[in-house]
Amino acid sequence: MTNILVLESAALFKQRRITCLGHFLKKRRRYTSQTLFKNWREVMVMASKYTNRPGLSRADTGIRKVASTFGKAAFLTHAQKADGMRAVESDTERFVANILGFEPSVRSFAPQPFTVDLIAGTILHTPEQRAAARAKHDGITGPKFYTPDFALSMSDGTREAIEVKLDAYLGDSGYDERLSTASQILWSHGYKFSKVVFPNYWQHPLRVNVPLIHQARMRNDLCPSEATFELIEQMFKAGAQTASDYCAGMSIAPRMLPVLVAFGALEIDIVNFQIRGDAPAKPAYGGLDHLEVVRRLTR
Hints:
299 residues, alpha+beta, 4-stranded mixed beta sheet, 3-stranded antiparallel beta sheet, 9 helices, 16% strand, elongated
């Protein structure tokens, strides 16, 4: 009898434990689903805030945003001619932006400046105009828009739009057709159009020289004195031919060569030679023609 009561008590206890466990799991499932839903909404709100880059709004000023979210790399550069910090679309464009910053014939420039409406033949200057044109051309096949990489204001008063490409890939026939149509529309609005082809080879002199000159141009405190210009001219007359000859004659380290080139004291062909001791050099006499690079890269 005792054994039967013990077995019945054990069975009743087991049944009650199962019932209680069922209520607990049911309540927990309800609580977990509510919590997950609440947390999911919070995650979505946080994600929308995280994926946007409000801090880059002052730098990413083009009509087509190139780094509006964290999912895309931000390539930043600084140039007084572009009114400070600016975001560009690629590392190649950053090289070209640095060149435009020190090229003497460029007065100012802007990345992603406007969009060319290839169908209507107009230039769109605001995102609202672009959105309206996109809605208007909905359903039309073929190329509709083109946005140049940079717009330039030249020192002679002319305006120019440029497209930047790597020499490893210049585009296909469809791409060339779009550029041809855009070029004609830009010309009718007073813009010259050109394609700037930058070298892809990692040891090309431009990939080494451009960052050096870009940094040197920011150091106005290192601008060479009148005596330095006169000394360089004297060394040239004495037979100096390479950058190391001038460094030895002035008792300066080769790391100062970019400063001499950037401020027109020394002339080196920065497209064909790296700025180093064995590079052919001569006096620049204060001129900056050796920093005119974009025309040499135009195709």
